[in-house]
Design brief:
Low-confidence stretches: 23-32
Shape: elongated
Largest sheet: 5 strands, antiparallel
Structural class: alpha+beta
Radius of gyration: 20 Å
Order of helices and strands: HHHHEEEEEH
Oligomer: single chain
Helix content: 40-55%
Strand content: 25-35%
Number of strands: 5
Distance between the termini: 62 Å
Length: 151
């Protein structure tokens, strides 16, 4: 019985060590780097933001920015710079979150998204990847840095 218990402890220790090491090797995706609640919030905010872009609700898409910057952010212009097409000729067909990262302080985050879009006038389909950047404000929670995200 002792041998089985010792074997179990050794296997558990090896599995735990492998999990920690693999987390460090992948840029901190392992244990102790950002809570799952924070990751979930960043994922939900990013999906809502992409939905707003898909349905051309630029005013609501700007609402993920900080309060003082909401009035001066020009989402259609940023979209045109990012995708090199006017927003009215852009059909965002699909998007999926590929990765959510939170830094070691828990105050900065980024979300990598793969999109599938159609350029309506050119009948072209593109699959660009985008990175959305966030910071955690003590009063407002997670705030998207729209300009750095869409440039």
């Amino acid at each position: 019985m002792k041998k089985i218990l010792i074997l179990f402890v050794i296997l558990f220790s090896c599995a735990f060590a492998a999990l920690v090491i693999s987390g460090r090797a992948t840029g901190g995706q392992g244990i102790g780097n950002g809570s799952s609640a924070d990751r979930g919030q960043l994922e939900q905010i990013s999906l809502k933001f992409m939905e707003d872009l898909r349905f051309k609700d630029f005013q609501h898409a700007a609402s993920y920015h900080s309060v003082e910057d909401r009035k001066k952010v020009n989402i259609p212009q940023l979209i045109e710079q990012w995708f090199a097409v006017k927003p009215e000729a852009l059909d965002i067909m699909r998007y999926e979150i590929q990765k959510v990262d939170i830094d070691s302080t828990g105050k900065r985050g980024r979300v990598k998204i793969k999109t599938v879009l159609k350029i309506l006038n050119a009948d072209q389909i593109k699959e660009p990847e985008m990175m959305l950047y966030f910071f955690k404000d003590p009063a407002e929670g997670w705030i998207m840095e729209l300009e750095s995200s869409l440039r």
